[in-house]
Amino acid sequence: xxxxxxxxxxxxxxxxxxxxxxxxxxxxxxxxxxxxxxxxxxxxxxxxxxxxxxxxxxxxxxxxxxxxxxxxxxxxxxxxxxxxxxxxxxxxxxxxxxxxxxxxxxxxxxxxxxxxxxxxxxxxxxxxxxxxxxxxxxxxxxxxxxxxxxxxxxxxxxxxxxxxxxxxxxxxxxxxxxxxxxxxxxxxxxxxxxxxxxxxxxxxxxxxxxxxxxxxxxxxxxxxxxxx
Length: 228
Prior knowledge:
Layout: H1 2-18, E1 28-30, E2 35-36, E3 38-39, E4 46-50, E5 56-64, E6 77-82, E7 86-89, E8 97-106, E9 118-121, E10 131-133, E11 142-148, E12 155-164, E13 169-177, E14 185-191, E15 198-208, E16 217-223
Parallel strand pairs: 2-9
Antiparallel strand pairs: 1-4, 3-4, 4-7, 5-6, 5-8, 8-9, 10-11, 11-14, 12-13, 12-15, 15-16
């Protein structure tokens, strides 16, 4: 009986090493599993983030285009230890899914188990997207942007909310309805002077006249120190 129990535990141990999705650490915040990737500062760069854990001194992540292998495999695999709760990876292969796992590093040298696997689709939006930030970074205490009402046929409403890198919504959702007086491009702004300087994300939802929700988009914005 003891030998069979020990063999089972040994099997579980090696299985968890080979397939990290069977263990758990901190949760992943954005993008949500199997959703479109969040574009970074350069084309073919993407942002992804995880929860902040009390006592952590660093977070290790592995990003791979191979769901079944995160080490010693052919393909596009990146591994780093960072202090932030997000990462930006550049030069990803367009049009394919990427899979990522994380674990926590503590001051005493311990590390957590690897997290579940999360994935995102590495598709950089086309230039003519629904929302364009003007400028980015922002230095005037506002988030200035332009909406392109001709980017999607039969577009009736656009909803925008602002999130920080911890996955917390920091500005209430704003809703904009199609205005017949606006031929195509509509300049707008969101008041953000009370937010601390740093990186934020705009979550953009587009609604058709029939109530259909199109694929949501994430936009990365940098807020610099407000200059009076």
